[in-house]
TrEMBL record:
It is found in: Membrane. The chain crosses the membrane at residues 7-37, 57-78, 90-109, 138-158, 178-198, 245-278, 298-317, 329-348, 360-378, 385-407, 419-443. It comes from Sporosarcina psychrophila (Bacillus psychrophilus). Pfam families: CitMHS. The keyword Phosphoprotein does not apply. InterPro entries: Cit_transptr-like_dom, Citrate_transporter, Glcn_transporter. It is a multi-pass membrane protein. GO terms for molecular function: citrate transmembrane transporter activity; gluconate transmembrane transporter activity. This is Citrate:proton symporter.
Amino acid sequence: MLSIIGLFTILIVVVLLISGKVSPIVGLVLVPIVGAFSAGFNFEQIGEFFTSGTQSVFSVAVMFIFAILFFGIMQDVGVFDPLIDKMISLTRGNVIAVAVGTVIIAAIAHLDGSGASTFLITIPALLPLYKKLKMSPYLLLMLVGTSASVMNMVPWAGPLGRTAAVLDMDVTELWRPLIKIQIIGLVLLIVLAVLLGLREKRRIAKNILADEKSMSADDSPELPVNVNQDQDTVAEKLLSRPKFYWVNVILAISVIGVLVWGVIPAGFAFMIGVSIALPINYPNIQDQMSRIKDHAPGAILMATIILAAGSFLGILNGTDMLNSIAKDLVTVLPAFIIPYLHIIIGVFGVPFDLLLSTDAYYFALLPIVDQVVTGFGVSSLSAAYAMIIGNIIGTFVSPLSPALWLALGLAGLEMGRHIRYSFMMMWGFSIVLLAIAVVIGVISI
């Protein structure tokens, strides 16, 4: 019964997010509360689950607020403008080249194994370029998320660490056979980026043609549009600080360096960055407050969603719904597919990411699958690799991932639209990668 309630709770939340009928906060807060009541938990217990869940994401929420302020100020003062102009000149505005470059930049950015830092580094830098070329920001998020997922197989990232703990083996030994999968995955993703870039190029051309037809059919004067554009340009120039360009670049690189180094909490690093950036660029206190007020609404909105997601995860974990789903999943499967259970779980690994947290998947489901298939002569490593490769690509398409909420906030995007845009593509990519792992012998059947 607990599994059924948990399953319905997650499915309802996912459906609400995809449909866009209600605010994410409403779905993430109210639905799990109803589910917990249905499972027999009282208000006091639910309150404890809420506290535990929000505490787990509180640092992410704080980091997000100050990261949005920091990168907003850096964009105001023009830090990213030369980078955008340089990338446009290198790619000559080539949409395909930008898509391929996104994959490579995201892979390098994720060498530290942190999804949050990867999004913090890539999204603010690349989003203005995507907007300038009229490329879809959802394509940016999908390419960054998929590239980061492939790189997430490094031993210092979460999935392999959890798997090594379950199998009681050295994480580096666990990682070595996966290096070839990472290389193949990045090559395939570059090919996919080329194909998606071609599709995006056609979409942009179609939209431009439609806009031209619309403008030719419209008899209204174009002067107000040009006036508004001129006003925007003037406003940008008033905010920019070309004399302090290299000071701001050094500041931005320093903050990102501290973030990657991990010597202090990320939220603290961005808090310091904001505190330095404001007086350097805007000595007048009214200008400083104006910059904060301008960027604060988006930061606060997404911080509240992150806290709501923490409440959601806290209730699902506290009620033990996620572990229950993982354990009961195996018991309902037909006997004839049990020897191939690791492959089946791997094939459906991305959809499972919408239902199970990372901890539930690796600490609850993996031990059960390992115990079952090893009785049929399948090695524990094959079982683990099938589950890792099948699941890891879906990491950044799941509403259970706090880092994804951070990325959505940085890009100003919606979870439901991201799932609709990216889910099938990422699932298909995951299945192809899993099949290649079987063919080259990393996974045995």
